[in-house]
UniProtKB/TrEMBL annotation:
InterPro entries: Alpha/beta_knot_MTases, NA-bd_OB-fold, Put_MeTrfase-C9orf114-like, tRNA_m1G_MTases_N. It comes from Aegilops tauschii subsp. strangulata. SUPFAM superfamilies: alpha/beta knot, Nucleic acid-binding proteins. It comes from the Eukaryota. PANTHER family: CLASS IV SAM-BINDING METHYLTRANSFERASE-RELATED (PTHR12150), METHYLTRANSFERASE C9ORF114-RELATED (PTHR12150:SF13). CDD domains: HsC9orf114-like. Belongs to the class IV-like SAM-binding methyltransferase superfamily. Pfam families: Methyltrn_RNA_3 (PF02598). This is Uncharacterized protein.
Amino acid sequence: MQGLLPPLDAPHHVRKHEWSEFREGVTLGGDRSKGTLVDVGLSQNVLVEQIVEQGKRVTVAMGTNRDLTPACVRKVVPQSSPSEEMGSYWGYKVRYASNLSGVINDSPYKEGYDHIIGTSEHGETIISSELILPSFRHLLIAFGGLAGLEESIEEDPNLNGKGANDVFPCYLNTCPNQGSRTIRTEEALLISLQYFQDPIRRAGMAS
């Protein structure tokens, strides 16, 4: 099945023959007297100064020195470092929420989400070029399952009595004139990301 999926070729999927200032890796076992060996997908494993248990995914700052011997000790850095320092997309994180209100309220950011958007076939239809988003630091775009976000709202005890427009200040139909009864979430995700690309870019330029 994996072979049938379209390749992402994302920036953090660095090829074996390419050099990058950061690489994702997995910590290995063995002697930890001088640090931890990490498999970062190169011809040799690299040594990092931190002591990390075996089998952990880590982001390694590789720098510009291409010496892969243990003489060149590197560091494990936060996963956000490549994005912050190079401005590159560097993957995503997954978190579990027991209901929709948990998705919104249990934000990983101290200040929460600046702007929240819900997507549904029952939402407002606005042409992408005419959609104006406020400037933001953290944007949340919510997608429902087969029965839509409406069902998620109905089943959430913390949202009792509320409608979609009460929960989402912006409730949009990003797939108008869909023709079929339903659009799979993974299909709606790709369509919507294309739909939001230009409005998000404009919001960033305005901030």
